[in-house]
Amino acid sequence: MEGPVPDLSEHAAACADRLRDADRVLLASHIDADGLTSAGIASLALERAEIPFETVFCRQLDERAIADIAATDYDTVLFTDFGSGQLDIIAEHEAAGDFHPVIADHHQPADGVETEHHLNPLRFGLDGATELSGAGASYVLARALEPDGGDNRDLAALAVVGAVGDMQDTNGTLTGANEGIVEEGVAAGVVEEGTDLRIYGRQTRALPKLLQYATDVRIPGISNNEAGAIEFLTELDVPCRDDDGEWKRWVDLTGDQRQTLASALIRRAIASGVPARRIDDLVGTTYVLSEEQEGTELRDVSEFSTLLNATARYDRGDVGLAVCLGDRDRALDRARRLLRNHRKNLSNGLQWVKEHGVTVEENLQWFDAGDEIRETIVGIVAGMAVGTDATRNGIPVLAFAENEDGDVKVSSRGSYVMVRNGLDLSVVMREASRAVGGDGGGHNVAAGATIPNGTVAEFIAEADRIVGEQLE
Ligand code: C5P
Ligand code: C5P
Ligand code: C5P
Ligand code: ZN
């Protein structure tokens, strides 16, 4: 077993040994698509290694959540998709003998501390925002946990869902260690890699909806325009409806028909003056889970990850985890119902931002949704608002929402162009939040924080100053 990243795998072997030494393990994970797939991978690996465990999910791994974990009588805690950012707090509990931590994460580690069993791509010269996700780190650990004669490479399917759920493929393809995981998944027969139209909903959306809702690359007369999308499809020499007159989905078309449609879409985009750089984004690498049924959300890694967010971000991580573990029955039905609700909330959230607009400071822009957008999805909405005309280009977006404790949740989103110019939102969120008595962290391109009620203005001023220094 070498795994996709040899150094990381070597350290994973030590983490695996520590887990094997435990009588039982508490598995704690994050409530989003990457966190759920991390938990799915870790659960299956622990089960196959015959290590007893129990699973818990946390919204945010803050001091209180860690204290709750310390209060259980588990001696060994496996943190997945979080833990690095809270290494200082975790190390204190370890020193106090509360528990022994094993961490598989990809967030920016807290400064000045280290623990023995800490698996994080950033410690091995890899980028945690693009080259390996929490699910990827958990996958590397799962490979190290393989019992003699075992093969955990089938878990690469979930690792790819986690990476795409954290938007690690926004440059058009997965790279770095993620690419190694894809190769292992292909070899194990669970992942297929291809070149295809990169529009959300290829498996489940009827063609007019697929095109109408495809707003990442806006095509005048088709995006956000139902009649326009229908007209475009009707004029094509491709049978877009079945014998009953129902609209087909992308997956229902043959390879040739897809090619015809994609070419026509690109010609239309060029004719409408869409910049070449954006047109390039229309086609790219796509990942399909070979063992999932065609035409379902689970077949396409991007739709799968949205389905998982639809559970975890609404306190139903148990439902999403059950889907990850193979429930294609009750849990999947429930997840689909939650998905309809999630979609409605995302669409309403984006609409709210468009109507209310953002406030532009010197180096950043922000909106405060109060209780209009759920704090657990305000980051996704902020990400969807970047690149639309609701926001300005070239500076990051900060989003605020009330959380259930009456504190304020902050989400921030930038772009890789800004990161190349020096932006690191994990530092901005950590330093600006600590300055007002809160805490935060994350990745260079996307990060978050929680701050006390009443400190928003001070926080914005502090964040604006730090972003200004970074982008200087
Ligand atoms: O906690 P976690 O690592 O899972 O969250 C990463 C977040 O960063 C996701 O919500 C993802 O959508 C966001 N992200 C982004 N743009 C990127 C990379 C990640 O908005 N280019
Ligand atoms: O929910 P998640 O962060 O996985 O969504 C990833 C992306 O998928 C969103 O940023 C959005 O562009 C797209 N999406 C969409 N329609 C939905 C849900 C997600 O276009 N209903
Ligand atoms: O919640 P949101 O999607 O905005 O989170 C973006 C990133 O920031 C995630 O990776 C999340 O884990 C991280 N974050 C954090 N500390 C917080 C809030 C968010 O590290 N208090
Ligand atoms: Zn993650």
SSE inventory with pairings:
Blueprint: H1 6-20, E1 25-30, H2 33-48, E2 53-58, H3 63-71, E3 76-80, H4 87-95, E4 100-104, E5 118-119, H5 134-144, H6 156-165, H7 177-187, E6 191-197, H8 207-212, H9 226-235, H10 255-271, H11 276-280, E7 283-289, H12 301-312, H13 317-324, H14 330-356, E8 359-360, E9 365-368, H15 378-385, E10 397-402, E11 408-413, H16 416-420, H17 425-435, E12 439-442, E13 446-451, H18 456-471
Bound molecules: cytidine-5'-monophosphate (C5P) (3 copies) and zinc ion.
One cytidine-5'-monophosphate (C5P) binds at residues 60, 85, 107, 379, 411, 439-443, 446-450.
Report on this model:
- Helix 1 (about 5-20) packs across helix 5, helix 12 (about 300-310) packs antiparallel against helix 13 (about 315-325) and helix 13 (about 315-325) crosses helix 14 (about 330-355).
- The strands form three sheets. This protein has a six-stranded mixed sheet. It has a five-stranded parallel sheet with strand order 2-1-3-4-5, sandwiched between helices.
- It contains 18 helices and 13 strands.
- The chain is an alpha/beta fold and about 475 residues long.
- The radius of gyration is 22 Å and the shape is globular.
- It has three domains: about 5-190, Alpha-Beta Complex (inorganic pyrophosphatase (n-terminal core)), CATH 3.90.1640; about 200-280; about 355-470, Roll (Diaminopimelate Epimerase, Chain A, domain 1), CATH 3.10.310.30.
- The protein has helices at about 5-20, 35-50, 65-70, 85-95, 135-145, 155-165, 175-185, 205-210, 225-235, 255-270, 275-280, 300-310, 315-325, 330-355, 380-385, 415-420, 425-435, 455-470; strands at about 25-30, 55-60, 75-80, 100-105, 120, 190-195, 285-290, 360, 365-370, 395-400, 410-415, 440, 445-450.
- It binds cytidine-5'-monophosphate (3 copies) and zinc ion.
- One cytidine-5'-monophosphate binds next to helix 15.
- One cytidine-5'-monophosphate binds near residues 166, 443 and 445.
- It holds the Pfam family DHH_CID.
- InterPro entries: DHH_CID, DHH_sf, DHHA1_dom, SSDNA_exonuclease_RecJ.
- This is Recombinase RecJ.
- GO terms for molecular function: nucleic acid binding.
